[in-house]
Design goal:
10 helices, 338 residues, alpha/beta, 6-stranded mixed sheet
Length: 338
């Protein structure tokens, strides 16, 4: 089927990286095919997903202006597999622990009292990230974590999967893929874009060139995605909610940054005060030690003088105090008061 080319001003589209826009887009019942396409691109490009049900399609009003609350999308497959999907714009403290906690909470929620563990279906977490989380894989846009034996890589169970899509890595990942195709002596121009490639580009829709946009529009599912996002972008309520959410995110970022700066400044002041106090304490301790050392040396010198006055030879004095005869002679030559 040939797709008609249409001129789109994507610069006016709402940002799909805004988590409210993300949820409105994928939770809409009429966009179910888009959600399925997106999930297939991430989970198993070669396997079709029969059906999905969004378990939390509504947007709780109390979180519109509370950026501290995560807006995730919980999906159930026909085989009862649960999938938790979220968009994460900024790196936050404890992100990995939170993802694992959300996974465990969703996994255990499947069982009711008295039911057997064998009834548990797989649980999957998917996080689309607008920042780089995994620094050791700079050109891998899709990271998958599973439960495996460390030495043999044997899969413990397929019931746990954590997927991360890092959007900033796209260009490096794309370049790496093209280089690998060139090594296989195949023309990259003849290779169709993968669905994952297409969806990642769609998340960057506001920055795509006209050529990239038109190429995506040639795919029926992506053409539908463009239309769906255009519709949301023209909806006054969706625009208002997205704006509120973005303002809340910016405010939280400012508050967090100011808190970090204040904590850093306070830490410096505390460090100075503690350093000063520690310096005084060290000085007192050092002074005390030096005083003791001087006292001991003075006492030893006085005893050496007394023994010398009583007629003890220098070599005998040196033996008593475990010193060289030369050291004894030097002490005896010194003024009486140290």
């Amino acid at each position: 089927m040939k797709i008609m080319k249409k001129k789109l001003d994507t610069s006016k589209f709402l940002d799909l990286k805004n988590d409210i826009v993300f949820k409105i887009f994928f939770a809409a019942a009429k966009n179910k095919s888009l959600l399925i396409s997106f999930l297939e691109a991430i989970l198993d490009p070669g396997k079709e997903i029969e059906d999905v049900e969004v378990l939390n399609p509504t947007l709780p009003k109390e979180v519109y202006e509370d950026k501290g609350v995560v807006l995730d999308l919980v999906v159930r497959f026909k085989d009862q597999t649960r999938v938790d999907i979220e968009m994460q714009v900024e790196d936050t403290t404890g992100f990995r622990k939170r993802i694992l906690y959300y996974w465990s909470r969703l996994h255990q929620s499947q069982l009711q009292a008295g039911e057997f563990y064998k009834q548990l279906a797989p649980t999957i977490s998917i996080a689309v990230l607008a920042y780089e989380e995994f620094k050791n894989t700079p050109d891998e846009v899709h990271s998958i974590f599973e439960l495996r034996e460390r030495s043999t890589a044997e899969l413990f169970l397929p019931d746990m999967q954590l997927h991360f899509i890092e959007l900033p890595k796209y260009d490096r990942w794309k370049k790496k893929q093209e280089q690998e195709l060139e090594k296989d002596l195949r023309s990259t121009s003849q290779q169709p874009q993968s669905h994952l490639d297409q969806w990642i580009q769609f998340f960057k829709i506001n920055n795509l060139s006209e050529t990239q946009t038109q190429k995506l529009l040639e795919e029926p599912i992506m053409s539908k995605a463009f239309n769906a996002l255009e519709e949301i972008s023209n909806d006054p309520e969706s625009k208002a909610l997205a704006e509120l959410r973005e303002k809340a995110r910016i405010n939280l970022h400012i508050i967090t940054s100011e808190a970090k700066a204040a904590a850093k400044a306070e830490g410096i002041e505390v460090g100075k005060a503690e350093g000063k106090a520690e310096g005084i304490e060290i000085g007192v301790t050092k002074g005390k030690a030096e005083g003791i050392e001087i006292g001991v040396a003075k006492g030893k010198a006085e005893n050496i003088r007394r023994m010398s006055e009583k007629g003890y030879p220098a070599n005998e004095i040196a033996r008593v105090f475990d010193m060289s005869e030369e050291e004894v002679q030097n002490i005896l030559k010194m003024p009486y008061k140290l």
